Amino acid sequence: MSVIAKKQESSTNAERRRRGKELILRVAEEVFANLGFQGATMTEIGKRAGLPKANIHYYFSSKAKLYQRVIDNVFTVWLKAADKFDDHDDPRQALTAYISAKMELARSRPNGSKVWANEIIRGAPMIRDYLETHLLDWCISREARIQSWIDRGMMRPVNPRYLLYMIWASTQHYADFGTQITVLNNGEALSDEAFDEAKNTLIDVILNGLLYESN
Amino acid sequence: MSVIAKKQESSTNAERRRRGKELILRVAEEVFANLGFQGATMTEIGKRAGLPKANIHYYFSSKAKLYQRVIDNVFTVWLKAADKFDDHDDPRQALTAYISAKMELARSRPNGSKVWANEIIRGAPMIRDYLETHLLDWCISREARIQSWIDRGMMRPVNPRYLLYMIWASTQHYADFGTQITVLNNGEALSDEAFDEAKNTLIDVILNGLLYESN
DNA sequence: GTCTATAGAATGATAGAC
DNA sequence: GTCTATCATTCTATAGAC
Predict the structure, then answer these.
(1) Residue B39 and residue A202: Cβ atoms within 8 Å?
(2) Domain count across chain A
């Protein structure tokens, strides 16, 4: 076997290993979201991934480590969507883009949002440092941006932080409380059209609540 | 011992028993809120209540039954606050009263809100029937009320259901995500003044977003 | 009613064969 | 790398003394 062939085989194995880890992470996100950290079991994660639990321990040394990796992914995805906030220097466009991005995330990755919510409700034992550093930094810089809009008379004066909380809460609700929303929708998940209407209602009320008539 | 004395003693014992159950329920709400259903243990509940776990089982036959009772209490308290919605036939007054009541509940009973959130995130296994009956009924009647305001030109047209979700989400956030809010507040819980400002921001944005200038 | 002790089941983690 | 078998721990729940 040539060196090149060896390299290719090695690359293939690495690739397979990566895919195995990806699969486990995806399944683990779902299980942690629906059962909480304590409720989730390695056996259940293994079962849904089609593996004995010993294999999960082979890839991720402990349940806590696996959970930490799931949380890392959730935060990475959130950060990426949150950057939509910076695309425009106009409150109407920026807030519309941000609310839309958050709603699309709630739609496409509800389990990530649930894991995050579960973790916060528990008192954030695993991610306190994220909150104290990355999240706080993100907030401070965006609050400055919102304040500059207020100072320039582009929107009504509100405490920027409470505005951010309002947007987080009302968008993430469609992921975290998806079960309740489905039950109240006669047991059917919101259609794409209904979800769009919900999104537009949020944008409509918040922008109307913040912007002056003239804008 | 006279019959009256016997009656009094019996009443005192019943009273003590009731107080014992109350204490356990209060402690259980806190433990379920912070650890989730699976994370909460009878040992921990007993420890915080100053009792061995066998006593908890004496008062509540099983962990599931105790949890169900905690959930019952949460829903009862919520229903009472939700009635604030009916005190006025004017959107400004009614929505202000309702948002205020929800925020006061988030402030005074954050653990109840967290238990509810945990239960919904898990897929509402224990309270699906509540959602399908009591909560749905409550929604339908209040949506009709909101719709009548819209029909009478008292507020801008929005889908009443998504407005309710917005109010629930943005108020309950202050309970469910209290840990995150505290960390972002430099590790200190929101002061009464800050909480009031948050409440007024919500009322301000939502009412401004819904009502016509002339109102 | 209250407690100690323990049964019986489930879980995270690992050893060791293949 | 993958699997079976198993250990050590922890949990719900109950038995039984007081």
Answers:
(1) no
(2) 2
